[in-house]
Amino acid sequence: MRQRAGFSIMEILVVLIIISISSTVAVVSYASFRKDEAIRGAAEKIRSIIVQTRTRAIAGGHPAEVVFNFDVQQVWVNDLTPAGLHQARKVIPPELLHYDVIMEEVQVGSTTTTSGQVTARFNADGSSEFLTVNIRRADSDDSLDESYYSIQIYPTSSDPKVWPHERK
């Protein structure tokens, strides 16, 4: 009886096809995961900056404002005097959102802004106007709510809420 010395070409081809299909699925899944992480991270970054702004206002005993700049997709914090004038600009330096994330709109009170620059003010007691920030993945269909994250804080709330896959 003759023993085989190795694998046949057909067996090798089948293994290579299985490996290539598996690696393709893994690469596509990983790319999607990274994009989801980018928008989740941007939402958490905005939530954190809102919390820091409110904390600065309370701890400093003077108003502070968070600035949303649509033109360069940045967010930063300014300290204000009790009269509402700028005391110190960019005390929390500008944070760029991830390149795969677009800040689509910011609603402060009843005013919704989609371009330029908008500010949300936090008073020394921690109160503010109603604030909603909607962000989305840059490569997604802007008509689908699944590609959005909303960050919201109510006037007397202490902690902003992040709403994944929703446009508020």
Structure commentary:
- This protein is α+β, with helices and mostly antiparallel strands.
- Helix content is 31%, strand content 35%.
- The protein has one helix at 9-60; strands at residues 64-69, 74-80, 86-96, 101-108, 111-113, 117-122, 131-137, 148-153, 161-164.
- The strands form 2 sheets. The chain has a 5-stranded antiparallel beta sheet, with helices on one face. The chain has a 4-stranded antiparallel beta sheet with strand order 3-2-1-6, with helices on one face.
- A hairpin with a 2-residue loop joins strand 4 and strand 5.
- The mean pLDDT is 91.
Label the CATH architecture.
3-Layer(bab) Sandwich
Which fold name is given in CATH as the topology? Answer: minor pseudopilin epsh fold
**Main β-sheet, spatial strand arrangement:** 5-4-7-8-9
Order of helices and strands: HEEEEEEEEE
How many DSSP E strands?
Answer: 9
Structural class determined from secondary elements: alpha+beta
Helical segment count: 1
Molecular shape: elongated
Number of domains: 1
Largest sheet: 5 strands, antiparallel
CATH superfamily: minor pseudopilin epsh domain
CATH classification, class level: Alpha Beta
Average of the residue pLDDT scores: 91
Estimated radius of gyration: 24 Å
Fraction of residues in H or I helices:
25-40%
- The proportion of strand residues reads 25-35%
Low-confidence stretches: none
Distance between the termini: 74 Å
